[in-house]
Amino acid sequence: MASTLHLIPLPAKFPTKNPQNIALFASPSSCRSFKGKSLPRHTAWRSSYVRGQVVEPLTSDEPQEATFTSSQSSSSKLVLVVGGTGGVGQLIVASLLDRNVKTRLLLRNPEKATALFGQHEDDKLQVCQGDTRNPKDLDPCMFEGVTHVICCTGTTAFPSKRWFGDNTPERVDWEGVRNLVSVLPPSLKRIVLVSSVGVTKYDQLPWSIMNLFSVLKYKKMGEDYIRNSGLPFTIIRPGRLTDGPYTSYDLNTLLQATAGERRAVVIDQGDQLVGEASRIVVAEACIQALQIDFTEGQIYEINSVKKQGEGPGVDPSRWTELFFKATQKSTTVV
């Protein structure tokens, strides 16, 4: 049985006192080849997530030993987010900044970062220009000091305006992932890849419809490349994404986003889940998986469903329970 908890909704408003006027870091000082430029000043408000709220009582078969463990404190991490201005990526970056986790973005268009996240000192947010589809863009110095990577790049499953400029599933989900993984340092502690449910069944209905233009096939090829790379990995396969994308919103708006009625979180393994997943839930799952040791080398499917009660929110112990139950149920990686 898939493990289920419920998502804590974020409050509708966050405090807007004491605005911070901070500068965006355009590129790491060690990377002279980066094309950074001065961006206009921007005022951003830092807000906090709701923490420590009570969720439904655990049943007697919940593992008491499944406690949150983190091999590194937030201050010692440097998380590289690839695809950080997309629907899931925006929420990941906003949440990392809210947690005071040092973050580096790899973006085709660095100017988007200012509109979304404001300006920050380089000890908090760094923005590098590069395109994973182009191996020449991926200078090794971009990855100096990086301890963790979250890759949430993607495009549409069917031809759309997002395919313009050779932004197809083959180029993004396969070649882009391959190019990125090929240059990551062996010292990396974890890479989390956002993939999709159904990647192992792309020749079966209903997934074959989704795969008419091979998006699931190429996502699976990206997964396999990571699995065979020798790097420590976790793969998150969400259902059909809902909530957002939150394109063009600022940091404060991103932090106010909620999963609406889809608060229950379901995590499973074996590519058995069919359903939808809130982008907010997927973003939080990626961040939590980075910090849980036993999620290394694992692939998880994730859905969010309508159900009464609150959910795991940002509570590490609740997410640990979810991942633990799914892992204990099936240790087979598909």
List the helices and strands and how they pair.
Blueprint: E1 3-6, E2 20-22, E3 42-44, E4 78-82, H1 87-98, E5 102-107, H2 111-117, E6 125-129, E7 148-151, H3 169-183, E8 190-194, H4 207-210, H5 215-227, E9 233-238, E10 240-242, H6 251-256, E11 264-268, E12 276-278, H7 279-291, E13 298-305, H8 316-329
Notes on the protein architecture:
The chain has helices at residues 87-98, 111-117, 169-183, 207-210, 215-227, 251-256, 279-291, 316-329; strands at 3-6, 20-22, 42-44, 78-82, 102-107, 125-129, 148-151, 190-194, 233-238, 240-242, 264-268, 276-278, 298-305. It is of the alpha/beta class. The strands form 3 sheets. The protein has a 9-stranded mixed β-sheet with strand order 1-11-13-9-8-7-4-5-6, sandwiched between helices. A two-stranded antiparallel ribbon has the order 2-3. A two-stranded parallel sheet has the order 10-12. Helix 1 (87-98) packs across helix 7 (279-291) and helix 3 packs parallel to helix 5 (215-227). It is globular and about 45 Å long.
What oligomeric state is this?
Answer: single chain
What distance lies between the first and last C-alpha atoms, to the nearest angstrom? 17 Å
Radius of gyration: 19 Å
Shape summary: globular
Structural class: alpha/beta
Share of β-strand residues: 15-25%
> Main β-sheet, in a few words?
9 strands, mixed
Roughly what percent helix?
25-40%
